[in-house]
Amino acid sequence: MSRPRAVILDVDGTLIDTNDAHAHAWVEVCHEFGHDVPFGKVREMIGMGGDRVLPGLTGLLEESEVGQEMKERRGTIFRERYLPSCQPFPCARELLERFRDDGLQLVVATSASKDDMAALLEAAGVADLVDAKTSSSDADNSKPSPDIVQAALQNAGCDPSEAIMLGDTPYDVEASGRAGVRCVALRCGGWDDDALSAAVAIYQDPADLLAHYDSSPFAGNH
Fold first, then answer.
1. In terms of domains, do 37 and 128 share one?
2. What's the average pLDDT block by block, 10 residues per block, for the chain (222 residues)?
3. Segment (H or E) for 133
4. 68, 71, 168, 176 — which has fewest CB within 10 A?
């Protein structure tokens, strides 16, 4: 395969260590609204959008009045209580700089809200490197539906064969696959190789991918 023209980037669990933080924020907001949910149940859903997580945990639809209140409150809890202590994964910025040096367009495709996405990119220290941003508001259905990946492709102006997605969850792998895009997966989001097995390559974290960049799909090998 030739070198891609664009990299479609997930953020949570891929560039910055936030998956546990998102799960804790969901547990807290559910408790505030009278729904006691176990952390483990929430954690395995992180990577999908709120339109899937909220009904999965509470039976409420995100577009309902209470659903909207919970969505906004969850975002506030995450950004105020948890995000300030979240750290980028080692070499996250350096990896994106390598992509840029190779002439690859960087397009974010995240299930996060626009507010969360902006805060996440700043916290990850990569906001200035991203060419285009696609959030939950740009797709009718969140991952593992392909909508967000397809919107990112449109932003990048490239065909599915010309892009590679970098993600950390089975939902990233499935969403990209359904959009016809290869996915490179990272374990740092908390999933093992079995869960990520449909990816074309798996690395531990951004530092591991950067160390093996020249033999990776991003260099046109695979």
1. no
2. 89 97 98 97 94 95 95 95 97 98 94 84 95 75 91 94 97 97 98 98 98 95 60
3. strand 132-134
4. 68
